[in-house]
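My hope is that you will study the record closing this message with an eye to the fold:
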Amino acid sequence: MTRQIKTDDASGRGAVAGFKVPFPGRMHGYTEEGIKAVSAVMRKAEGQTQGAYLRQFEADFTAYTGANHVFAVDNATNALRLAAVLCRLGKGAEVIIPAYTFCATAIPFGKTGARIVWADIDPRTWVADPDDIERKITSKTRAIMVVHLLGMPVDMPRVMKIARKHNLKVVEDCAQAPGAAINGRRVGTFGDFGCFSWHGAKNMTTLGEGGMLTVKSHKDAALVPGLRHNGVRAITGKRQRYWVPAMSTVDIDIEGVWPNNFCLGEAQCALGSVELRRLDAINAMLISQAEKIKVRLADTAEIEFARIPSGYKHIFHQFIMHFNGRAFNADRNDLMDILVNDYRIRCIVQYCPLYRFPLFQKMGFGRHNCPVLDAWWDNSFSFPWWCGMPGETIDYLCNSTKAAIAKLKGLKK
């Protein structure tokens, strides 16, 4: 298995050249088995989409998650778009969405015309706080969106209890959490819909883009094939000639809603089945890496980690920490200055609260009441992170962080 680090990065993380420890755009490299699977589709598959490899990938993911219905799509954003449509949102409706997440979580719901209400984070787990969600429910609320950010599950038993009480739809954004679980139950199977990402930076990938939608109800699931594939479906009933009036027909699935083309190619599906077989091992390695860092920095009081509730499986899609330098008047930027400039560690800051972005402010969603997130986020940061980090790299990250904090204490006296 080989890996090449890009020198440019569309994620906005910046060029990696010149860093001792970079932050690569990919989580892991491909195996020979995956490469052969893609090549086999190129050589043998008669059709390149909507075929046997799609059906196999969906069957494999159904078996892995235990979801009622599974649909492969071209990316997680479009899985979220399908979920938003199936929630029957529109103008006048409200949907509660965590403010701490990637922008793609919220954009599909904003497109429906619904009003976005920002949810705060739990101060211990750093993902959506169910108590804050419940506080923000009104007579106009129609759906709750939760995000298992960074691989940390949200308290889904509590969220589902709230949703049942108020008769609300629940969408799980599992883009960063395939394989995460609560007491053995996989995320994406609690709510009405689960949305997964196979982007190249994720714990498993289908050639850089791809996604999956899980659906709980049979009624909603029956609508997805048409919504996913331009409203195309077979002509039913007996026909004298199979080609009359045409090979298929195009119809509507939800009144007033145009269908789309969100299909995932056969080569990507073939790779997806191979990657899925690796997923638990990849997650286990990331968990092991995270535990090593937490042990190494356990005596560094200024570095804080998210607390993982008992029975929760956090799969560490990224490794985010919180820096508390109040005692010597230092903040995250002071620490990162030293880590970047003195030790050439490409730390990053990610997932800015969505209400701070121009996009959401200009679209009318700048108002918020998220005091926990506002107090926490400005001192959060991420270590470089990928699956299979060498032990010496982990040692260097931890030793450098300790040295940088010691330097800050001396500078700020």
In short: Residues 1-8 have pLDDT under 50 and may be disordered. The chain has two domains: 32-275, 278-411. The first helix runs from residue 32 to 44.
